[in-house]
Structures are given as structure tokens and as C-alpha cells.
Amino acid sequence: MTDEFTTDIYYDDDADVSTLDDDTVAVLGYGSQGHAHALNLHESGVDVVVGLRENSSSRSAAEADGLTVTTPADAVSQASYVSVLVPDTVQPAVYENAIEPNLEAGDTLQFAHGLNIHYNQIQPPEGVDVTMVAPKSPGHLVRRNYENDEGTPGLLAIYQNESGDAPERALAYAKGIGCTRAGVIETTFREEVESDLFGEQAVLCGGVTSLVKHGYETLVDAGYSPEIAYFECLNELKLIVDLMYEGGHAEMWDSVSDTAEYGGLSRGDRIVDETVRENMEETLEEIQNGEFTREWILENQSGRPSYTQLRQAEKNHEIEEVGERLRDLFAWAEESSENESAEAA
Ligand code: NAD
Ligand code: MG
Ligand code: MG
Ligand code: MG
Ligand code: MG
Q: Which residue of 28, 40, 175, 313 shows the fewest CB atoms closer than 10 Å?
């Protein structure tokens, strides 16, 4: 029942791939998302041409997968539906050099993330539809799910609807890559971009690694062994998150001991307290007012000096070395038990 939600959700019955029967779809880029979109669309009966640079190492992969490959500029001029799946940081240059000169009125410009449109790094001309179909999953899963007759949840947004058909066309694309099998939620470019940046900075990537490091350091600095600290603060996190993924917080609290439940419920808000909440609000503000994106664009223009330094510091953290050692031991344990069962079978 979709009307229980605050947004509309679209499924296979709401979309028709044959809407794109008269289109050629140019898929620019053959990385994580690109290969999945190109292959899924192709197998859904859509006419696909992959656009890659002459010297791109992905060319042979796309050709071996049975797809037609040409340059990005040529792909755009052949196509009426252009799916931009090169990295976000190179999209403005690819747009300027290969897309814009070859776009025609009536074409659709399709994205899997709204960053460059929302922050005006790409300003499409009038007469062109601008849409987003963004699978909420890494590309290899978009592909694997499709092959297994399963779907990948996705987001859909319309930025420019000059033809009047942008929603139907975007839904056809979403169906072609398998997203409507699982469900597609309607959003806006602004909501998708700002919530995506916030989620990865505050919770998923930034917040969680920082929480893990602080926990690990607190134990190790107090004299506990690094191995114990690693298991307690990093390794077990997956088991906890799996329970939350399956059944929300309730399933996790049900599965842990009463001692863990009481300790967590009574101490959690002391650890992640009001100051963390204020920091989150500040982080969200920097996303909303464009400060983060400006910083990221300048960082790329100057050769990524801070990014390189931050990456190096993260790599050098003790937890990474301890983890590598322990994961090797456990990979060995898993492998040997797999071998045993293989031999027994
Ligand atoms: P990627 O880094 O995996 O792949 C990039 C592809 O672009 C490669 O094939 C590369 O050869 C090609 N490329 C790089 N520079 C190029 C250039 N100058 N000209 C032409 N081709 C070039 O990229 P990705 O992670 O699939 O991201 C593509 C889009 O999908 C981005 O907008 C991203 O935000 C979005 N997205 C990604 C994911 C994900 O899980 N990776 C999830 C949702 C949305
Ligand atoms: Mg064209
Ligand atoms: Mg993101
Ligand atoms: Mg425990
Ligand atoms: Mg319990």
C-alpha cells in the first residue's frame, strides 16, 4: 500500500520499457554503475551505446560484454537519452567537452546522483529533459540483482520536464535497470543530494568510522589489548548492523543480552550527545549552503592535497594494521573450514 507513505513508490506495473523503443541510450562510463545500467538496459531490450575515452581500460570489458562502444561525444550524438555515469568530479568536464556540443532539443540527460545539477556545476540548456534514476546500491549489486530476477530500490527525480514525458521516460529507464522490481521512490535533486551527502558524512562513512576509532582508542589507551578492542569496536559492528537491517533497532535490542540492552539504552545518548547533534546540524548546514561542495571542487582543482593527507592518516591508524592481521587469521580459519566441508561433500 503505497499511500501509507509520504512519497509515491513505483513498481513494474507503473512503467513500460517500450517507452524507450525509439531511443538510443548512451551510457557514459563503464564503472560501478555504468556497466550495470548498460548491461541491464541492453538485456531489457533497450538500444544501448557505451561512451568511453579512446584509451579507457573499460573499453575491452564493455566490448567483451557484447556492447557497442564509441567515444562519449559520438555516443551522445547517436543517442536521445544520455546517462551520465562517469565520476561526479569529472562530469563537468565531460559535459562541456562531449555532451553539451552534441545534445539536441528533446534529448534526456539522466544522472544517478544529483550533485552537479544541484550545485550548478552542469547547467543544461532549455529543451532538454533532466532526470535522475539513482539505484540505492553499489553497481555490482544492481547488476547481480537483475541477473537473479531481483530488483534494486531506487530514487527518481525530475529536474527539467521539457518534453512533458520525462517521468514516463525515467520510469522506463528505472524498469530497464531493474529498479521498479523492488520499488522506486520519488524525490527531488535537492533532497537526494543533500541527504546523500549528510548520510555519508555524519552517519554511514564519517560518523561510524570516527565512533569506531574513538571506542578503540579509549580501550587501548586504558591498557586493553588491541585485538580485543578491534573485535569489540569494529568486528562486532557488522553483527549488530545486520540485526538492525533485518528488523530495526527492536530486533537488535531483542537479540543482545538484557545487560547490553540496559547499558546501551542508558549510556548511548551520553556518548552521542547534544554536542554531536549540534555538529551534525553544522555539517548539514555546510551541505545546504554549498560550502562543502565548494571545498570539494577546490580540493580537486588543486590536486587533492587534503584528501591525500586524510587518506594517509586513516591508513596509518593502528586499528587498520591490527585488523589486517586479525582478518588474515580469520580468513584462514574460514577457508580451512570451507575446504573441510568441500572435501566432506
Ligand atoms: P566509477 O568510478 O565506478 O566509474 C567511472 C567510469 O567513468 C569508468 O568506466 C571510467 O573509465 C569512466 N571515466 C572516468 N573518467 C572519464 C572521462 N574523463 N571521460 C569518460 N569516461 C571517464 O563511477 P560510479 O561509482 O559508477 O559513479 C557514476 C555515477 O553514479 C556518479 O554520479 C555516482 O555518484 C553515481 N552513483 C554511484 C554509486 C556507486 O555505488 N558507485 C551509487 C549510486 C550512484
Ligand atoms: Mg543525440
Ligand atoms: Mg554519495
Ligand atoms: Mg559483547
Ligand atoms: Mg534482550
A: 313
- Binding residue ranges for substrate: 257
Q: Are residues 146 and 209 in the same domain?
A: no
Mutation probe of ligand 1 site: the residue of 27, 28, 30, 32 with most atoms within 8 A of C-beta: 32
Residues with CB under 6 A from ligand 1: 29-34, 52-53, 56, 58, 72, 85-88, 90, 94, 112-113, 134-135, 138-139
Distance 91 CA to ligand 3 centre (A): 15
Question: Average pLDDT over the chain, rounded to whole?
Answer: 94
* Residue 198 placed within a domain: no
Q: 38 falls in which pLDDT band (50, 70, 90)?
A: very high
**Are 139 and 25 members of one domain?**
yes
- For residue 3, is pLDDT > 70? no
Cell representation of residue 114: 544529483
Determine contact, residues 98/91, Cβ cutoff 8 Å.
no
Domain endpoint, select from 154, 187, 220: 187
Query: Which numbered ligand comes closest to the C-alpha of 232?
Result: 4
Whole-number Å distance between alpha carbons of 293 and 275? 24
Are 155 and 29 in a shared domain?
yes
In tens, the pLDDT along 276-295 reads: 999 999 999 999 999 999 99
Q: Is residue 113 annotated as a catalytic residue, yes or no?
A: yes
**pLDDT confidence bin for 334, thresholds 50/70/90:** low
Cell numbers that stand for 134 in this block: 539513482
Domain that holds residue 225: 205-272+304-344
Residue 130 sits in a domain of what CATH number?
3.40.50.720
- Regarding an ipTM greater than 0.90, the answer is yes
Largest CA-CA distance found in the chain, in angstroms, rounded: 68
Q: The whole model's pTM is what?
A: 0.90
Domains in the chain, number: 2
Strand pairing partners for 110?
Answer: 83, 131
Neighbours of ion ligand 2 (CB under 5 A): 77, 79
